[in-house]
């Protein structure tokens, strides 16, 4: 059965399609973090994207390709994709339903509802999510926009790669490596397609929590692993790598490294304190990967994708 995989040309088309709707996010630096890493670090700040995450790119790319008569969309999400789809749907005059696990962060549930979606809660597993979404589709006839295993989503997320290559060139340098977090794999797969077309000499590394290492194990074995039970603070990376995503990652990504929970926390607090940027644990996995696998990055020019900034912050006392 054909998987209908996206190509680099689809990423380029997506970049043109979504440009009026999304931010061009900045490429930031931190001398202190570069010194600590022993590398020249650049941070692609997708936590400053619409809805606070790169997910806006894929969601709006998918919605903009729907026929005008399709007025209802649905998905399952731990938060960022749900918020992105709710925003994209509202921006195009559509309604949305988002199935969310009951243990999703409260700030992400509130964001999804705040963008106008109806939230349907379910159990914490991928099987729970998919069953609840199937019920929603059966009852409403909604068009499903998957969170990652979809060529439109992969192409949209890949526009991060298009943008960062252009920004690096404008600054007069070529990165040696790009590091991006991986959960379902939309961001890593899409970035891989972009780099293959624009900067094939640049190596792409995925970073993943050791407590959710299905993509790491899949890439090492050559067989997609769907049996890994996730346990990590990085809630956006608990999902299993998608089938299409794995097929693209296998062809475009050099390696996927794993990081510890303490490493994620330390990296997140460094970004908060040194860069004054509020990122979520999933975003900090990129920096944790550089610190915990330092020999691979030392002396290199490295772009790290900060994927999102939706953190459940307590109210001041």
TrEMBL record:
Keywords: Magnesium, Pyridoxal phosphate. Its cofactor is Mg(2+); Ca(2+); Mn(2+); pyridoxal 5'-phosphate. The keyword rRNA processing does not apply. CDD domains: Thr-dehyd (cd01562). Residues 19-308 form the Tryptophan synthase beta chain-like PALP domain. Pfam families: PALP. The keyword NADP does not apply. This is Pyridoxal-phosphate dependent enzyme. The lineage of its organism: Bacteria, Pseudomonadati, Pseudomonadota, Gammaproteobacteria, Cellvibrionales.
